[in-house]
Write a structure and sequence with these properties.
The protein has about 300 residues and is an alpha+beta fold. It has 8 helices and 10 strands. The strands form 3 sheets. A 5-stranded mixed β-sheet has the order 3-10-6-5-4. A 3-stranded antiparallel β-sheet has the order 7-9-8, covered by helices on one side. Strand 4 and strand 5 form a beta hairpin. It starts with a strand and ends with a helix.
């Protein structure tokens, strides 16, 4: 009774009366699979352990359903199991992002005082694009833009649901002149943008006046992000409410995240590490690209002719 079988004369297609429930169920199953350590991209040989997801013997099939995401978000990568010390012996093994540290580009003032501390290893930045650290399984690389994009996407999704994104009023309102397509995209997403922290007034024609903007992190260029997001959203197909939430959150997160080439301070790197460790799907950004790549010790030893 949930399927309409009369949408195709040859019965080659059927239609769900409520397709969103089915899509959410599939999405939940996929999220559970992608929230395990096996979801991180590997280079070279790797070790397999029973019951942790994919195995070579299974031909890519799931051996068992992994633990729900809220209980096991890539613990093997983000909790090395031993305390690490940074340069000069300063302990960095239990770094928490301070609730009032709004200057951090990956924090945005979000309160995390009640969260479990995350073990943070010594981090270094490569080419102002990747964070690297040593792990028992090999060398771990994190793409700073993809990682921050994932963190902001999940944060923006929560803000769209609750409407509690931090916002700051501008001392001098900013006037924007949009193209017809961008103005249409704004009209379709005006209510969602307000939930993200934008306070925007239509000023006739294709002109907007921005009175307040969100403040996800200190480097955030709210006006440029608004322009880029509306340009990316223009010309898109009309989607359901849930899909609009996800598309807007993904678009704004992509435009708002720190970019490849942005230098990060040690504190910013640690804050990004902690925020990614607490994400629901830390191994992938909103486009499905890997945020984390592991180069196994076996692969490194093979490259250097040690085995």
């Amino acid at each position: 009774d949930l399927v309409d079988v009369n949408v195709h004369p040859a019965k080659a297609e059927v239609r769900f009366h409520d397709r969103w429930g089915t899509e959410r169920a599939i999405e939940h199953i996929v999220q559970r699979a992608l929230g395990t350590p096996d979801a991180a991209a590997w280079m070279g040989a790797r070790s397999w352990s029973p019951g942790t997801g994919l195995s070579p013997a299974s031909g890519g099939a799931l051996d068992t359903l992994p633990t729900p995401l809220s209980h096991a978000p890539l613990d093997g990568l983000f909790a090395p199991g031993r305390e690490e010390s940074g340069a000069g012996g300063r302990e960095e093994s239990s770094i928490d992002v301070a609730p009032d540290d709004a200057s951090n580009p990956v924090n945005g003032g979000e309160s995390v005082a009640s969260m479990t501390p995350v073990l943070v290893p010594p981090l270094m930045q490569l080419r102002r694009t990747y964070l690297m650290y040593e792990h028992d399984d090999g060398v771990i690389l994190i793409d700073q833009h993809s990682a921050h994009e994932r963190v902001l996407y999940e944060r923006f999704l929560g803000a769209l649901s609750r409407g509690d994104a931090p916002s700051q009023r501008l001392l001098f309102p900013v006037t924007l002149h949009l193209s017809p397509d961008d103005a249409e995209a704004f009209e379709a997403s005006a209510d969602l943008l307000s939930r993200l922290g934008y306070e925007i007034e239509a000023f006739g024609g294709h002109t907007l006046i921005v009175h307040a903007v969100p403040t996800p992190h200190a480097r955030f260029d709210a006006i440029q992000c608004l322009r880029d997001s509306l340009a990316a959203l223009s010309g898109g197909r009309e989607a359901g409410a849930h899909a609009r939430h996800e598309r807007l959150a993904a678009t704004v997160a992509c435009k708002a995240a720190v970019k490849a080439g942005d230098p990060l301070s040690p504190e910013e790197m640690r804050a990004l590490f902690v925020a990614l460790a607490r994400a629901t799907l830390p191994a992938h950004d909103v486009h499905g690209r890997a945020t984390i790549v592991r180069v196994g010790w076996d692969e490194l030893e093979r490259r250097f002719g040690r085995r």
